[in-house]
Amino acid sequence: VKRSKSGKNTRIIAIINQKGGVGKSTTAVNLAAALSEMGRKTLLIDFDPQGNSTSGFGIEKEELDQCIYDALLHNTPASDLIIQTNSKRVFIVPATIQLAGAEIELVSTMARETRLKELIAPVKHEFDFILIDCPPSLGLLTINALAAADSVLIPIQCEYYALEGVTKLLESMKMVKGRINTNLTIYGVVLTMYDSRTSLANQVVEEVRSFFGAETFKTLIPRTVKLSEAPSYGLPITTYAPNNKGSKAYMSLAKEVIKRA
Ligand code: ADP
């Protein structure tokens, strides 16, 4: 893996929301691909035992003999786990279901909350962005992600109870900030699965914007079938359907993300 040419500081961003199905993996895969389209070298760390970011790039989980679990529990260096994806400047550290065991096994290890941070450190400077796709819980894996990241990107689905659980998430962030990672900030909040035809979606947008203010990205990620189909082809939307509104939205989000860096 060659050093990125841009020479900018690496941004480590945890994509987090303890609710499942809000668009974390979809955002991780497609934001990584969009950032790469804009010339940014990106490492995606799949930190969700479901491994949807891994399969989203067409990587066959059954064929992997190592994953992020081995780095966390067996000290395998991250450099041994990084795989080039089918998108030019996107690299991934994959996850398999094996990672599910880490939540419990980590408890008895030394420096259990900073394992991910330690394993990213030696490869960090090779990338412009490192995105961490977090699991849908606030357990030890998520604490590791919050300890390793400089900031969090929170996807919020335009659905009933959109903000439910957000207070809990902010409390966890505060706890990590106080004890392990004083510089942790919110990078941004992105609204996902937006359907402009429903008044509910528009209400949620209003609600989230009044709660998070300028932290909310202007880009709204639309609900579109192409975004849900792309993973079954193992492709990000920018390759699968580059002219689709979902692809344009993730490109627009990438632009905002780069601007905030
Ligand atoms: P999470 O990682 O938070 O569990 P996912 O990204 O896996 O959420 O999304 C949950 C489901 O919703 C998946 O089936 C995904 O394909 C679908 N999905 C996510 N974003 C969109 C979107 N913008 N439009 C249509 N379907 C979407």
Automatic annotation (TrEMBL):
Belongs to the ParA family. May play a role in septum formation. Residues 11-186 form the AAA domain. Pfam families: AAA_31 (PF13614). It comes from the Bacteria. This is Chromosome segregation ATPase. Gene3D superfamilies: P-loop containing nucleotide triphosphate hydrolases. PANTHER family: P-LOOP CONTAINING NUCLEOSIDE TRIPHOSPHATE HYDROLASE (PTHR13696), PARA FAMILY PROTEIN CT_582 (PTHR13696:SF52).
